[in-house]
Every structure is written in structure tokens, then in C-alpha cells.
Amino acid sequence: MKRFLRTIAIHTVIGAVLLNVVGVAARRFPVAFYCLHPKDWLKICMRIESSRKKIVGDTIVVGGSVAHQFIPYRTRGYDGVLTSNGSVLPSGNYILIHNALQRNPQIKRVVYVSIPNTIGHKFERSRTYTHFIKPFVTWRALTHFDREEMAQIMARNSVRLNLLPFHAILPIPDRDLEDGQEKPFDQFSAFSLHWLHRIKQLCKEHETEFILVSPPLPQHLATEAADWKNMRAQLKDTDLEDVGTTYFSRITYHSDEFLHDGVHWTPEFVDMHRDAFLRSIRESTARMSLCPPPHS
Q1: What confidence tens digit (pLDDT) does each residue in 128-167 have?
Q2: How far apart are CA 124 and CA 17, in angstroms?
Q3: Dihedral angle of Cα 23, 24, 26, 29, to the nearest 10 degrees
Q4: Cα(83)–Cα(67) distance, rounded to whole angstroms?
Q5: What's the CA gap between 269 and 273, in Å, rounded?
Q6: Domain ranges of the chain
Q7: Distance between CA atoms of 212 and 145, rounded to whole angstroms?
Q8: pTM confidence score
Q9: pLDDT in tens, 189-206
Q10: How far is the CA of 259 from the CAs of 184, 220, 265, 267, 292, in angstroms?
């Protein structure tokens, strides 16, 4: 009996070690693992690995899925573009920016491209676990969070389990962190606002310009958001006021008929407006060197 239990224990330990090795490898080589195990969280891991690479230019770009339509991330020929989706949250983009600035001291500017109602997302959302917790909340990333931030992020036991490398690759459903509390779409959550301030401070420490830019927005938001007065008020008299003023003043609106899902634009619209959008970004800084991506 003792021999049997010892055998079980040994095999359990070996299995746990092997699973952890696979879990670590999945984060380290996400492109290869995505081919075998196509999960959304691995797409974000691709950005994390890219953010640690050397780039030639002086500009990095982060942002949501609408930003990705206009300035797409590419696993090959990485050029400082780390656009992903809104559920990465400003906290995830902070880590991407931090990685890139550490690896590339020549960076002069950080461009965060996002629609207002996405950049203000709350933490307690159904997509947070897949796109932020799984890829970002690891032992390696814990140094980015202070005690209060950790308390909020780790408030649920299911999140703590993600610190085990093998947990992300287990065939179990992702946790839904939605708390049922509706956040007005035209306000920053306290969580997102906190991390935007941290990004601004990070850029200041690295003597790097921080620029917020909105992609084109659908016309209905021009009325519903009332010129984003609530968000403007949240930034007033803070270190983000100047950044926010420029951000909101440069928003352009276009007919809803060019939307294909209520949020994202049709490929035809993107192709038609990409060059003008990139020009508008360049106008935010005279020295910016951001080349248009190739048309897919």
C-alpha cells in the first residue's frame, strides 16, 4: 500500500512539473502554441513577448481592437505596434509600455489609441479574465502592482490560481468577473483612470511623450456622449488634463452605416480612412515617425 501511494505521489509531482513547464513555455512561445491551441489569451501573450523585443523606431503604439483595425499588430516584422483589444485594460497596456521602455531607451513617445468608452472600462467584466488576468497576472508581472492594486486584482481566489503556470492551459472555462454593476459608458472607471495616471507617470520617468488618440467614432456617440463632458470633468485639474483635452478635441465622427458590428468599422471604411487617421496622429506631435501598415 505504501509503495502504491508513493508511486501515485511521484507521478503526481512529475505531472505537475511537466504541466508547469508547458504552461511557462506557452507564455514564452505563444505563436507556436497558438497554432496548436488557438486561444485568445495567447494572442495577448504574443504582444507581451513582442514588447520585450528591440525595435528600431522611436514610437510605440498600444490600444484596443478598433485601433488594431487601423494600426495592426504583426507577429513578424514587429515595429513597436502592440494594439490588441479593450479588455487588456490600461493596466495591461501599462505592462506592455513598461516592457518596451525598458528594452528600448530610444523611445520618445507612447501613443495610446482607443475609443473613449473602451479606455474607461471597469475591471469587473466578463472578458477581463481571458484578456488581462490570464496573460498578465503572473509571478513575473507582480512587481508592477502595489499592495492596493494586488488586493483588487486578487480579490477572487480564481485569479490567484492563475499564478500557477499550468492553470492557464487547463481545459476549464475562463472565469466571469462581471459584478453586475453597470458603469456609464461615458465615464472612466476608477480602475482605468488609476492606470492611465500610472502610464502618464511612467512616461514622465522615462522622459517620453504620452499621447492619447481616438480612432474614428460612429455618429451616434456625438450626441449620446455630449462631447464626453463627464470624462473631461474626471481629467480636469489632474496630470492628464492636457492629454485629455487634445484627445477629445481631435475626435472625428462618421456615419453609423459603415459599422459592421456596432463598434468596429468595415474593412472598406478602414482602407479609405487609414491614411487620414495616421496623418491626424502625426499632427499630435511634429516629430512622430509612424509608417502606415501594409494593406492586408
Answers
A1: 999 999 999 988 888 898 888 888 888 776 777 788 877 7
A2: 32
A3: -170
A4: 6
A5: 6
A6: 2-282
A7: 23
A8: 0.90
A9: 999 999 999 999 999 999
A10: 22, 11, 4, 9, 22
Hey, what's the cell of 25?
513555455
Q: Is 129 exposed, middle or buried (0-12, 13-18, 19+ CB in 10 A)?
A: buried
- Yes or no: say if 185 and 117 are a contact pair by the CB < 8 Å rule: yes
* The pairing of beta strand 253-254 with beta strand 59-63: unpaired
The Cα–Cα gap between 108 and 275 comes to: 22
Average pLDDT, the chain: 88
- Residue 62's φ and ψ, nearest 5 degrees, are -125, 170
Q: How confident is the model at residue 295 (pLDDT cuts 50, 70, 90)?
A: very low
Is 48:91 a contact under the CB 8 Å cutoff?
no
- Residue 10 Cα distances to 15, 23, 25, 170, 257, angstroms: 9, 20, 23, 21, 62
In terms of Cα–Cα distance, which of 103, 83, 97 is closest to 270?
83
